[in-house]
Prior knowledge:
Elements: E1 2-3, E2 5-7, E3 30-37, H1 46-62, H2 73-81, E4 85-91, H3 94-100, E5 105-108, E6 113-116, E7 120-121, H4 127-130, E8 154-157, H5 165-182, H6 185-193, E9 199-202, H7 205-211, E10 218-221, E11 232-237
Parallel strand pairs: 3-4, 8-9
Antiparallel strand pairs: 1-4, 2-10, 3-6, 3-7, 5-6, 8-11, 10-11
Helix pairs in contact: 1-5
Amino acid sequence: MNSDQTHDRTPAAASPFRSEPTVRDEAPQFVLPLVARIERSAPPARTDALETAARAVLTVLADERSAGEGEWAQAMRDWQDARIRKVVRRARGAEWRRAEALPGITVTGKSAEVRVFPPVPLDGWPKDLARLQVSGTDLDDPEPPPPADPTAPVLWLNPDLDMSAGKAMAQAGHAAQLAWWELTDEDRGAWRDACFPLSVRPAAPSHWTALVTSGLPLVRDAGFTEIAPGSSTVVADHPALR
């Protein structure tokens, strides 16, 4: 699922999180590919898939190959200099095995597997990823997830929006990235060393109203797919940002 987003806490005119045209639109556009393993006989639980996608985004941001002179660093810089796009595709069987053969990182949850790849040009996907399906990535929770741990980061979903699993995975990834950017180096390191604990949960309507005015990182979708432009989708509630 394709997704771009805006961010209320970044006022700079050239921010990647603004929906109106900026200088970032003039730069070559890149996208961060995520592939979810969805086998027909054993699909992952929806909440676990969302949480695993968010951790996958954090994992590639924190990877040493994404920094300095690392092999992915230039692609990461090019991606973050333009719009911050993410696309979630699905794979199973031989499709998944071909995806795993490409450079990237596989992150595993309780039932979910998500592989994240270094950014690619918007119109320059590797063929083994380009052929994968985007639509139809919908999942269910076989039983309600437990309450979120308030001492760990929580990515709160807008309870009034109906998003496919693929769209919600991309939005959770956006929120995790916003939280990562706003943390101090010390807090980033602590989160990384703990293997990025987090929860993704729909907020109660009254809680959502408070969250969007709390000053915590808020994702607003650019409206390319599924939902209206400017829709508030996720609030990243990291204890260090409260």
